[in-house]
Amino acid sequence: MIGAGLVRFSGAVEELTEADRDALFSRATNEDASITLRASEIIDDVRVRGDDALRELAFALDGVSLETLEVPRATILRALDSTPPDVRRVLERSARNIATVHGAFMPTPMEVEPEPGVVVGRRPDPLQRVGVYAPGGRAAYPSSVLMGAIPARVAGVGEVILCSPPGSDGLPSRAVLAAAALANVDRVFAIGGAGAIGAMAYGTRSVPRVDRIVGPGNAYVAAAKLLVVRQVAIDSPAGPSELILIADDSADPSVVATEMVAQAEHDPLACVIAIAISEATASRIERALAGEVERADRSEIVREALAGHGGILRVSSVAAAVEFSNRFAPEHLLLCVSNAAAVVRSVRNAGTVFVGERSSVAFGDYMTGANHVLPTGGLARSYSGLSPLDFVRWTTYQRVGAAAAANLAMDVGVFADAESLPGHAAAARQWSAR
């Protein structure tokens, strides 16, 4: 069978068992009750004991004793100054593109006059303070700093703070600090995990309370964000990386395989599915994928991801593949088909779509200017990728002229009477004779 032994799901889509379909489409975020319980305990501790709890967490989880939680501004700037020139150049290029793209996405105020003299308006007002989370630990993600902080700055947010776990020196990664400087982050705190989310949600003596928390993290961070949604807005619930690739007979199987490995290396829980339009294409992808896995530097992670959540599936047409993808609602969708520009018009549910095999997902992760903070677990049915819209709230206002007030008064009174609200009726009718 196609993909047998290399990926978990294989063969024709219509031949998938009910159990396989359930496993593919039921990708709920944060199913581990023990993680949720521990995240809740950490948040409660931070809410009650503030900075003391954060210091204890840094010692217990990161092995460092922190005299201060905040990273001095001079340290942040030194990190940027000491960044290797080639790394700084690509960070600056990415930052420029993110600012350009998200600047074009900025919402604008609007007014409408449904009746003469009745004006309803809506304007986007930037949030006062936003918190960005950047993962640490085994890897540093300066790209996540740029993706979170720059759209906030574009939107006009008053203050942007960053939380990222400390390393052995008590500081977040130098690359993360350099990105914070480039993104004009106001304050940086060397705290991570669920504790950082709790600190930003409730505030401590050192860490200010924010209006929204954005940015990726591990399972504890994801659980913590869901636990604080009654206190603070979040971007979207996040889970392991996802990719669907749709490949017709024009697709280069080596390109498909390379993209699959690139996403699978994120996490053993990453979900990577290739949907081929013919059995011959599926077979070519399988052979190419086997070779790429053998050569992969992170082959152990890649193998685990593919065996647990990978697939090479077959459908009869590109339309059927898009229908499958729309039901799956992936974080990333890569269209390796000959008429990709036309096909993208029928895509409805995806965090972001890469149109044509040259449009590598890696380009979007780092450099095109689009955001890589995206919905996972099927939530692309209702959530969108991070944008300036996440950093504003809408103020609606209404203005009624004298003639319009007199014209509305009696009908509004009738409406209010029908709902047994005489005070509303009186408030409206007072304007009928003025």
How is this structure best described in words?
- With 434 residues, the chain is an alpha/beta fold.
- It has 2 domains: 152 residues, Rossmann fold; 202 residues, Nitrogenase molybdenum iron protein domain (Rossmann fold).
- The chain has 17 helices and 15 strands.
- The strands form 3 sheets. Strands 1-12-11-10-13-14 form a 6-stranded parallel β-sheet, sandwiched between helices.
- Helix 4 packs across helix 7.
- The longest helix has 20 residues.
- The radius of gyration is 25 Å and the shape is globular.
- It starts with 8 loop residues before the first strand and ends in a 5-residue tail after the last helix.
- The mean pLDDT is 94.
Would you report the number of β strands?
15
Helix content: 40-55%
- Global outline: globular
State mean pLDDT (0 to 100 scale): 94
Could you name the CATH homologous superfamily of the largest domain? Nitrogenase molybdenum iron protein domain
| CATH structural class of the largest domain | Alpha Beta
Structural classification:
alpha/beta
How is the main sheet built?
6 strands, parallel
Characteristic key phrases:
434 residues; alpha/beta; Rossmann fold; six-stranded parallel sheet; six-stranded mixed sheet; 17 helices; globular
Kindly summarize this structure in a few lines.
With 434 residues, the protein is an alpha/beta fold. It has helices at 18-25, 33-49, 51-62, 73-81, 85-104, 142-155, 174-182, 193-202, 219-227, 253-264, 279-295, 299-309, 318-328, 340-343, 361-366, 402-418, 422-429; strands at residues 9-12, 70-71, 110-115, 118-126, 129-133, 159-163, 187-189, 212-214, 233-234, 242-247, 271-276, 311-314, 332-336, 352-355, 392-400.
